User: What shape does this take?
Amino acid sequence: MTDQSPTAPAGCPAHAGAVPLSGLEYQQTPSQLYRSLRREHGPVAPVLLDGGVPAWLVLGYSEVSYVTAHDELFARDSRRWNQWENIPADWPLMPFVGYQPSVLFTEGAEHQRRAGVITHALEQVDQFELARDCGQIADALISRFAGSGQAELMAAYAHALPMRAAVQMCGMPQLGTDTQDLVDDLRISLDAAEGDDPVAAYVRVGERIAALVKEKRERPGADVTSRMILDPAGLTDEEIVQDLISVIAAAQQPTANWICNTLRLLLTDERFALNVSGGRVSVGEALNEVLWLDTPTQNFIGRWAVRDTQLGGRLIRAGDCVVLGLAAANTDPQIWPESHVGAENAAHLSFSNGEHRCPYPAPLLADVIARTAVETLLDRLPDLVLAVEPAELTWRPSIWMRGLTSLPVRFTPVVH
Assistant: This one.
């Protein structure tokens, strides 16, 4: 199964109309893909993952909500998958689906125990301190390029800021080779480019986090890692390592793309251009609109059917893989019949839904990081403009993540 051709293995649920989700011409404008899939197949579409592996993509808002609310029918333990015999060890999506003893794959009481430890550790993060820390990180990053009058914000700012904030929350130093290597390997494992080895990168991430847990067990501090270690639930080191990877990965890549997609909106949409400098309200509106229309996590793999069941008029077989189409659900015409998104409406599915949604208060912390990043940049560089035409911006070629390859800007140089 190293062949990447979109031919489904025998006995798969997909039929001749299945659409490959790899090598898409739609990667720059996935909304077109979601529209055509919805038109042809309804709210649940047969798709082919890398290597022609069959799955179901859930496109409807009510259907995604149903799947995420019914763990007894659609569960997270990927060992249920009926396609494992067709999956090679070096499959590109293995970091997403290969079973790990992590909170992501636990179910029932064990999931509540593990998610509870993360929630308790994150609840003790002071949001005012986090905003202050993010402001300091933002200032340091901006100072590196403020004097030049130009910058590429994806690498220099949008990715760097949430990673530094996340590792600081977890008790790692913000700077250093170890931290930068962790950033690079997390990106590769979550969103591999041509020639990357996501499986090897994920192993290296695990090794770095294991060293952090060992260090904090010996010398605990006022950080998320130490709080997870000291929690009465008594997680093992291996469990803490796996769950910390989930926390850091969720804090970094999606938040970076949230920052970048919001800056893109503010710099290209005339609705915001007139009042964004000095206008706090519009930054909040832009952050929320991005979660609806350009959500950083487009699709999430996945859930596995516990038994044969019906969903959106489809027969889903026991062990079938179900991919949550979060972006498609957020733009479902059933909930936005006139394609109008209310800025104050926060009922999007960008942080998922149900038992396995992003654990509270992680979305609030992500909002603090993203909002501080955007507002600090606009405060420091009030005449910030795109350095290219909006049509020249390109999206990373990924059906999973929604983020730009680069965001070049120019501004009046600021000399300290």
